[in-house]
Design brief:
- The protein is of the alpha/beta class.
- It has helices spanning 7-19, 22-29, 33-46, 64-92, 104-108, 110-121, 134-142, 229-237, 284-302, and strands at 53-55, 60-62, 97-102, 126-131, 148-152, 162-170, 172-177, 187-188, 197-200, 221-225, 243-246, 257-262, 270-277.
- A hairpin with a 4-residue loop joins strand 1 (53-55) and strand 2 (60-62).
- Helix 1 (7-19) crosses helix 4 and helix 2 crosses helix 3 (33-46).
- The relative contact order is 0.13.
């Protein structure tokens, strides 16, 4: 009956075969000659008990069994070495992959900054990004198609089954056309915009930014439904309505649109998270990307991109 085979014994076998000597192999591998002899004996036992080397007066020579084993031993050791190299690359961030998703406004400013930082620090990690609504990103996390997703709690998507890494609480602005009477204000109450036409990202207000704003004193009159935030700006600039714009998109707004901070009592800040699958260990690349996300947020805050 054949026993278990260790990669150490296979490596010793290959070195003895290469050098034709137990003594030389022991010196090369940093073992005693008796240790090499025990490894070869253990390997011979695991392979069925026949000798792998003929012991000659001057050195050793492969037997027919040793010649049969040779290519298999080489392949096994090469595969283990390759696995060890890849695992080292993952640990030291000199290789591997990272798949990141983000909701659209995070993809406008935050994600490009974080990706630029990450690539400057870890250029050998293969990084792929994609944009999509929070519920889409969560589905891709579930399907193991993403390693990390930047998500928000805006649309009430269920987040409790994910590991959430809090990134920031994002304040809201209202986007106004340049000629709007309130366009020069620093802050506005939504009740002051009750008579304006509104632009929503979804026909279902509970799945839009406006959901948090609906209350007893304010219900927006939605006239236009525009999903993409860049298109929303076009509608606002044309004077067709007003829209909520999150702080993450504030530094990417066109010049003919004015942003005015919304009072926090009217629209509370929304939480933004990096979501990862619950119960799974974070890879070194994910851990590193979480750090670059926070660095990118600090950079945006320093440039007043996230101030209310």
């Amino acid at each position: 009956m054949m026993g278990d085979v260790s990669t150490g014994s296979l490596a010793a076998f290959l070195e003895v075969a290469r050098l034709g000597s137990f003594t030389s192999a022991a010196q090369t591998l940093g073992y005693t000659q008796s240790a090499i002899s025990r490894q070869i004996s253990a390997l011979e036992g695991a392979m069925g008990g026949g000798p792998l080397f003929d012991r000659l007066p001057r050195g050793v020579r492969l037997t027919e069994a040793g010649r049969v084993l040779m290519p298999y031993a080489e392949a096994a050791v090469e595969r283990v070495d390759a696995a060890r190299h890849e695992l080292t690359a993952l640990r030291e961030l000199t290789g591997g992959r990272l798949r990141v998703g983000a909701f659209p406004t995070a993809g406008a400013g935050l994600l490009p900054r974080a990706v630029t930082l990450f690539r400057s620090r870890y250029p050998e990690v293969r990084l792929r990004t994609e944009e999509g609504l929070t519920r889409v990103q969560l589905g891709r996390l579930d399907a193991d198609e993403l390693d990390l997703a930047v998500v928000s709690d805006t649309a009430g998507d269920p987040l409790d089954s994910y590991e959430l890494h809090h990134l920031l609480d994002e304040s809201m602005y209202v986007a106004l056309p340049d000629e709007h009477p309130l366009a020069r204000r620093r802050q506005v109450r939504l009740a002051e915009l009750a008579d304006d036409d509104w632009i929503s990202g979804s026909p279902q207000l509970e799945r839009s930014l406006l959901h948090a704003a609906i209350g007893e004193t304010f219900r927006p009159r939605v006239v236009h439904v525009v999903a993409e935030w860049i298109a929303k700006q076009g509608y606002v600039a044309a004077g067709l309505g007003v829209a909520l714009i999150p702080a993450l998109a504030a530094d990417c707004v066109r010049r003919d649109v004015r942003l005015v901070a919304v009072h926090e009592d009217d629209v509370p800040a929304r939480a933004v998270y990096a979501a990862t699958p619950q119960g799974r260990s974070l890879s070194p690349a994910v851990e590193a990307f979480l750090g670059t996300l926070r660095d990118a947020i600090d950079d945006m805050a320093a440039q007043s991109c996230l101030s209310g």
